[in-house]
Specification:
The longest helix is centred in the middle third of the chain and has 4 residues, at 172-175. β17 (220-225) and β18 (232-237) form a beta hairpin. This protein has two helices and 22 strands. It has two domains: 5-203, no CATH class; 206-293, Immunoglobulin-like, CATH 2.60.40. It has helices at residues 172-175, 187-190, and strands at 5-6, 35-38, 47-56, 62-73, 83-85, 91-94, 104-111, 118-123, 128-130, 136-140, 148-152, 162-171, 176-178, 191-193, 196-200, 206-213, 220-225, 232-237, 243-249, 252-259, 274-281, 286-293. The chain is mainly beta.
Length: 295
């Protein structure tokens, strides 16, 4: 995917109470976080901050992240102080439950106005993946079991009386690295967790939605933004009813591709790949592609 943060670089904790996984710098465009509108009930000089998690699917039955806390950093980049823990109930989140337009609300709180520099998800040791073979494997990180995910923010300005939404788009396919069968089929040696997360402002982006037939084709849907020098790719899967949605898309011209993940019965016409070019996406609007036939 394009606008993403790849947390492939690791470092030890900055201080004993926090462990985290350092992220690589974002490639390309700076991310901005804009206002979702006024919060009429918020007259105490605070901003309203919401953080949501969504997922780009991968070839697994479940991906469970043991999220212990969420923090926001307000000081300069290299300042070890300034981390503030946000109100969040520690929980295990199966990110594959939040695809095709669904998202998990992680944080919804008042926050002092300011310009946060980074966000950090502190992970516990119980991250797992349920693979297609029906087995559950531990997800290990190169820096150890108590690592977290650290993401940089740029041009974020929380203003009093306004509500802001920050969407963390977790890319399962790129975030989980398989190491073959590991050491003697040891589950702790088979998969590594190297989170790739896109940070977007929901209210500034467009939507593509539609349906596919037949629903049994269960296609993967790719939207490739072709109106930029380096194409940006976003993906989802059609659900059991054939519906799909791609949220938080930057404005531009896209090519949408459909790839069936199943085969048609022997007595039916085979499913086919379909490409729809010249799809226009604009900010704060939904582009409905209607029904697309894959047979």
């Amino acid at each position: 995917m394009g606008l993403h943060y790849s947390c492939n670089d690791f470092s030890p904790p900055m201080k004993p109470t926090f462990s985290f996984l350092t992220s690589a710098l974002a490639m390309g465009t700076l991310l901005s976080l804009a206002s979702c509108g006024k919060d009429n009930d918020n007259d105490n000089g605070a901003a309203k901050l919401q953080i949501r998690l969504t997922d780009a699917p991968g070839d697994f039955r479940a991906v469970n992240l043991d999220v212990r806390s969420i923090e926001l950093h307000l000081n300069a980049e290299n300042d070890p102080n300034g981390w503030q823990t946000l109100p969040f109930t520690p929980q295990t989140i199966n990110v594959l439950e939040y695809v095709n337009g669904r998202s998990a609300l992680l944080v919804d709180t008042d926050f002092n106005p300011g310009t946060p520099q980074e966000i950090r998800l502190v992970l516990g040791p119980n991250n797992t993946v349920l693979a297609r073979d029906g087995r559950t494997y531990a997800l290990k990180t190169p820096s150890g079991q108590t690592s977290g995910v650290k993401l940089k923010l740029q041009n974020v300005n929380l203003q009093a009386g306004q509500t802001y939404q920050l969407l963390l788009d977790f890319d399962v396919a790129k975030s989980i690295v398989e190491r073959g069968n590991g050491n003697g089929n040891n589950p702790n040696e088979r998969y590594l967790l190297k989170p790739v997360i896109r940070v977007v402002a929901q209210e500034l982006n467009g939507v593509i939605r539609g349906t596919v037939t037949p629903t049994a084709a269960a296609p993967q849907v790719l939207a490739i933004r072709s109106s930029i020098t380096v194409p940006d790719t976003f993906s989802t899967m059609a659900d059991a009813s054939g519906a799909y949605q791609l949220l938080s898309l930057p404005a531009g011209t896209y090519t949408v591709k459909y790839f069936p993940t199943t085969s048609a019965p022997a007595n039916q016409t085979p499913y086919r790949e379909v490409t729809r070019a010249g799809v226009t996406v604009t900010n704060n609007a939904t582009t409905d592609l209607g029904s697309t036939a894959l047979q």
